[in-house]
Structure formats: C-alpha cells, structure tokens
Design goal:
CATH topology of the largest domain: Serine Threonine Protein Phosphatase 5, Tetratricopeptide repeat
Number of helices: 17
Strand content: under 5%
Structural class: mainly alpha
Number of strands: 0
Shape: globular
Length: 275
C-alpha cells in the first residue's frame, strides 16, 4: 500500500502478488492494491480483482477492509464514466464510515460521491480528499505532494480550471503510466480549446533514444542545465522526493552514475545539443 501511494506501481504489484497468494490475512488488501494499479494503468482485470476483494471484505464486515475496496470500486467506475456505479459502490460504506467517525474512509468515499454528483455534507476535516470534495484543489494538491503521493497530487492538480495546471498534471500522469486519467485530462484540455496537447507516453517513450518518459526527459534537460534537485522541484511544482525518483530513473536508463555522465550520454544520444 505504501508503494502504491508513492507511485512505485511495479513494486506495489510485486509485493501485492506475494500477499495475494502466500499470506491469507493480507489477501484482501493485496487484491485491492493489485486492482488499483491495473485500474490506474488501464491494463485490465482490475474490476475482477476488486470483486474477489469485496467478497472477503464483505464477509469480514470491517471498515478497514470494506472502505479501501469500495473506494477502489468507486474510482474504477468514475474513470469509466459510470456515475451510478460510483454511488452504488461508495454510498453504503460511506454511511458506515460516517457512523464510525473514520476520517480517512469518510473523506475518500465522500470525495468519490461528490465527483459523481451525489451531494455529501462538508467533511470538516483537512484530509486532502475532503479538501478536494469541497473544491479546494490547490490546497489538496499541496497536501498530496507533501505526503509523497504523486498520482493523487496530479489528480488534484487536474481539477484546476487553469490549462497550465492541467498540463502539469498530465505530464505527471503520463510519467506514471496512468492512461485512463490522462485520457480524461486530455479531453478536458481539448474542451478548453487547446490545440497543442502532449501526446501519450508510449509514443514519446518509443521515440526517446534512452526510453525516457516525457517527464524524465524534462528532468534530464533541467539536470543538464546544472539545476539541483530542489531547484528542479521548484520549477516543476513537485516535491524534492519526486525529483529524486525521476533523477534516479534517468541515471538508470542512461546507464550512468553521475549527473555529469548523464548529460554527456544524453548529448551522445542526440537528446541534448552538443556543447
């Protein structure tokens, strides 16, 4: 669950697969994590895994299990545009979370209900999902970024009416491989009248000599300019931790150990102009 939150989805899948098969008490959360990765990537099979997780959660009648599964089902339904299914998944468990005064579950489930157009009472907490449900996307984005949750940070930023914020969110989503939400954001940008919208990550990555994503190539360019990680973070409006992860991925894909070597290798591959 921690790796999922950090955007390290390959690691999240690896650990969740172990939990789903080898450790019975972890089976429900493991299935939920596997499902959320697949839903967010649009890779298929997520809803089937959630159905299995729900069977376990429902038998337990414990909010710690039903809450995450219901939230994942609601997210999946919202991404495919099925608002009635969002309400069906989130509504009953949201009522239970309110009864038990469970802020995290109440905030997340209330957020999905609000996204589906189902009115909910103001949460009153400062949980990022509660802030988003109340329309405070900027404050929520800051909170998610501070918590090290890149997908949620991008999702909150995408709720901005400003095309520049949406473009920043889109770059982050493409970097994560979050195709379903990225597709929705592209649609929003087209609706706002933007003509030049970045292409999806698969086309960009295939064309990059080192296989860098669009965001990684952006970080590579700033790194080559001599910017430090905090300076890059400030320029891209993300956390230093997020930049640390991007820089590590860039060095790994270029097969080098230092920033200087990375810049030199990028010039060799034609990714940067020679100096």
């Amino acid at each position: 669950m921690r790796r999922l939150a950090a955007g390290a989805w390959d690691d999240a899948e690896k650990y969740a697969e172990l939990g789903a098969h080898d450790f019975v008490p972890a089976r429900c959360p493991a299935l939920t994590v596997l499902a959320r990765v697949r839903v967010r990537r649009g890779s298929g099979g997520g809803d089937e895994l959630l159905a299995q997780a729900w069977e376990i959660a429902e038998r337990s009648s414990e909010l710690q299990r039903t809450g995450p599964v219901a939230a994942a089902q609601a997210e999946s339904a919202w991404l495919r545009g099925d608002h009635p299914a969002v309400v069906a998944a989130a509504g009953p468990v949201f009522a239970e979370a309110c009864r038990l005064a469970s802020v995290p579950h109440r905030a997340e489930l209330g957020y999905w209900l609000a996204k589906a157009g189902h009115p909910v009472r103001a949460d009153g907490s400062k949980h990022p999902y509660a802030l988003q449900a109340a329309g405070h996307w900027r404050e929520a984005a800051r909170a998610w970024d501070a918590a090290g949750c890149p997908y949620e940070h991008a999702a909150a930023l995408a709720e901005s009416p400003d095309p520049d914020d949406k473009l920043t969110a889109l770059a982050a989503l493409d970097g994560l491989g979050a195709e379903p939400l990225a597709r929705l954001v592209r649609g929003q940008l087209r609706a706002l009248g933007l003509r030049r919208i970045p292409r999806g990550p698969l086309a960009v990555t295939r064309e990059n000599p080192a296989g860098l994503t669009e965001r990684q190539a952006q970080v590579m360019g700033l790194l080559a300019e001599g910017l430090t990680n905090p300076e890059i973070a400030d320029k891209l409006v993300v956390s230093v931790r997020t930049v640390d992860n991007h820089v590590s991925a860039v060095l790994d894909k270029l097969g080098v150990r230092t920033r200087r070597q990375a810049a030199a290798r990028a010039v060799e591959l034609g990714m940067l102009p020679g100096r």
